[in-house]
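Journal club prep — side note

Before the paper discussion, L.F. wants everyone to see what a predicted structure for a comparable chain looks like in token form. Sequence:
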Amino acid sequence: QVQVAESGGGSVQAGESLRLSCVASGVPSGQTYQNAVMGWIRQAPGKEREVVAAIYTGGGNTYYADSVKGRFTISRDNPKNAAFLQMDDLKPEDTATYYCATDWGLKLIPWHKLERYTYWGQGTQVTVST
């Protein structure tokens, strides 16, 4: 079974930074960590889930939501099946539960769509106060 686990959330003041970590294990049969999309999705109370960043492990291609461009940076460590989200200049609007999610294989689904991701972590809470 594929397992995804994220960590690194916490409570910070506006303008501060956090770094989230994600590790995926239990790679599906026939797949490797070099052929996966790993994404960070957040959900704030009363709001829909939003893909804020994603990365293709095979080449490092990235996606960012407009709301986080210039502030968040996604990266990966393929040998560890890991992905990271460096969040700088955090704003109260960034307060949410952040999920790491992933899928393997080539699929014709854009990275910003939730249905692109099959395996999800339990989430880590990020709270940004003024």
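L.F.'s comment for the group: The chain is about 0% helix and 50% strand. Keep this in mind when we get to the figures.
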